[in-house]
Queue: 4 jobs
Job 1
Amino acid sequence: DGGITQSPKYLFRKEGQNVTLSCEQNLNHDAMYWYRQDPGQGLRLIYYSQIVNDFQKGDIAEGYSVSREKKESFPLTVTSAQKNPTAFYLCASSEQGLDIQYFGAGTRLSVL
Amino acid sequence: GESVGLHLPTLSVQEGDNSIINCAYSNSASDYFIWYKQESGKGPQFIIDIRSNMDKRQGQRVTVLLNKTVKHLSLQIAATQPGDSAVYFCAENIGGGSQGNLIFGKGTKLSVKP
């Protein structure tokens, strides 16, 4: 998984609950990304961050929040406002100015 | 285990044969393309990339072909092995640089029969 660690591997959310997915990288990459993957669909961008303390919304940011307080960490919170959170969540990172994104192993989120 | 291959186009090949996986991209301004491999329950792995100023690039057992005229990308895998079974995605970058501009295709599921 190229130095990108996502945890937990499986996560269950109760209705009305916020949950946080962890993503840590030791590649010294500036840029980090969160994607959502649903069966039969391509990866959809939730949020990305090019530098510490800065992040941008992707295509499907509603119901999600992120922070980037440290270069190596980019946690994603799935809030209660996200009504259909069941999916496979992937975190990626890349060197600033380069296009190749390297992915973690993913977190599968399900609703109880 | 988890499946990211539901409802995807599927290519079934015999072990030892060559595989060709195709991808049509949408934006004529895209200048960089990547192929990823994703095994069930895992994150995508980088396979090979190509810039728009090239029409062919070769790696170990893999070749990527780019036809900008028809906006088509293909991944050729030589002597396909059971370990090649996975979902393969192409991704295009319309702007260059790490700006969240990678657009991913839905993927093709490759199944290798022993």
Job 2
Amino acid sequence: QVQLVQSGAEVKKPGASVKVSCKASGYTFSSYDISWVRQAPGQGLEWMGWISPSNGNTNYAQKFQGRVTMTPDTSTSTAYMELRSLRTDDTAVYYCARDMHYGAGSPWGQGTLVTVSS
Amino acid sequence: DIVMTQSPDSLAVSLGERATINCKSSQSVLYSSNNKTYLTWYQQKPGQPPKVVIYWASTRETGVPDRFSGSGSGTDFTLTISSLQAEDVAVYYCQQYYTTPRTFGQGTKVEIK
């Protein structure tokens, strides 16, 4: 079945970087874009951007421009999201999701908790 | 950016009763080239990632019970749960896929009265 499996929880200090992975299985990885969404504790969903694994094209939310990089590794069907210059308010669960042609993320990964604390 | 505004922020409904959630977009999310409305509804249960309930404003995702329905057009949309079940307790989000950034509503928490 189609599945996205993300890397484990991370604890980082302010100013550091984090790289979250999202391994796809059950479908042709390069055929679907991958979106990244985050959710701060007790808060709503925030769209961060998407990447096209077929050609590496990206589209980032303005809020994250200059701090985020999304990359694909087609050899392992894995998408990566790196966020730099971490701040305490970057503490959140980070999700990846497969973008469907009908305009929805499905399925989503299980989420990766990133905690930023001094 | 398209602003998505949901109402109410929370609602409590008795088992078997109707739950209605509204979502308003700050501009149309109708893609004229294919006449599809890029409005998606998600259900998120505690500790789980979101799951698609409705896409294209009114198309039920495979496997979603038919008590869930979506309606609306242009800028005003509604998610209806016709007969609330205990397993429907969750936070529901709308999201527009019309353009980037693909913004979400703030969420509506549905509980049992």
Job 3
Amino acid sequence: DGGITQSPKYLFRKEGQNVTLSCEQNLNHDAMYWYRQDPGQGLRLIYYSQIVNDFQKGDIAEGYSVSREKKESFPLTVTSAQKNPTAFYLCASARRANEKLFFGSGTQLSVL
Amino acid sequence: GEDVEQSLFLSVREGDSSVINCTYTDSSSTYLYWYKQEPGAGLQLLTYIFSNMDMKQDQRLTVLLNKKDKHLSLRIADTQTGDSAIYFCAESTRLYNFNKFYFGSGTKLNVKP
């Protein structure tokens, strides 16, 4: 089945720890995105990548980092510099950067 | 950034029509979208409309766009309990060589049996 796979479904972070959220897609999409969702709020863009080996900061990039070494993969690292990381994280992809987004099933990150 | 506004809640009875409304501020939007999110899941694209269209119908879904008033609506006919979810309005705007997406806060639709 084609789609976007996010893992893990649930993740817990200890204070001072970096954690990495996985996002893999087999849709052959060029563009990939990371969004953060807080309760009662819309989605906010963290990072996006239009092609391999290129990525750009979104609106709330501070405390996060990404890499795009392969077309299929766009992992997100939540660093210890992100002081309020508890949220639902959504990965999305699009065939090109100007087309509709398709989303993964999300990762819920909580702080211990 | 651009603003996309939605009401937070809507409650309807099974079999009735639901109308979810959205307003946006960017007059240069290219596409407008409706996504559905069930609890603990990602967003599922329901339908979208190009900004030069007024209406789009897809089975039980009807999208109306009033570009002058920057108002978008989603009508769900014969609403079922399985339609209970959060519905997000989104618009995309061309920014240099990239389309940026702006999402509303979501409308929680509750369908009562």
Job 4
Amino acid sequence: EAQVTQNPRYLITVTGKKLTVTCSQNMNHEYMSWYRQDPGLGLRQIYYSMNVEVTDKGDVPEGYKVSRKEKRNFPLILESPSPNQTSLYFCASSYRDSYNEQFFGPGTRLTVL
Amino acid sequence: RKEVEQDPGPFNVPEGATVAFNCTYSNSASQSFFWYRQDCRKEPKLLMSVYSSGNEDGRFTAQLNRASQYISLLIRDSKLSDSATYLCVVSVTGGGNKLTFGTGTQLKVEL
């Protein structure tokens, strides 16, 4: 089944404790991206990647890191999480770029205490 | 001004009604336009792309007005299952392949 998977789905952590949210797709897509969704602000793009080893900042990259060492994986790293990073996070992939249909993962609900 | 603006709603309509949503975008270099649907706490899913000539998919019709920089979505014969949040999405040429989402318009279809 073609899909985007994210792990964990739910995470409660404390300020400053490094964490990684994994994202994997099995559709051989070139484009992958991360979003956060907050009430009243909608979905905002954090980082995106056009292909392996190519990443670029979205609209809200501060406090986040990403890497794209393999085509299928695009982990989101929070080196020192803070409470303002409490949010619902979505990973997405598409065939080639932002002009194609985006396939979203199921979301990761993160709470930073 | 937000790059993509939508009326948040909620729009409460009876089953069978026709409902229209508008979305405005600020960047005239915007190239690609989409409507996504998001059910409560679930991932967004593509409803339809929006083409310059307008396009229709069953009960759904999307229109693009580049001169006025707005996109519309028309839903005819609303079903209970249409209840969701509808997200307007814009991709900008030369924008580094960034996607900008509107905050969404909530639709509630009632018996």
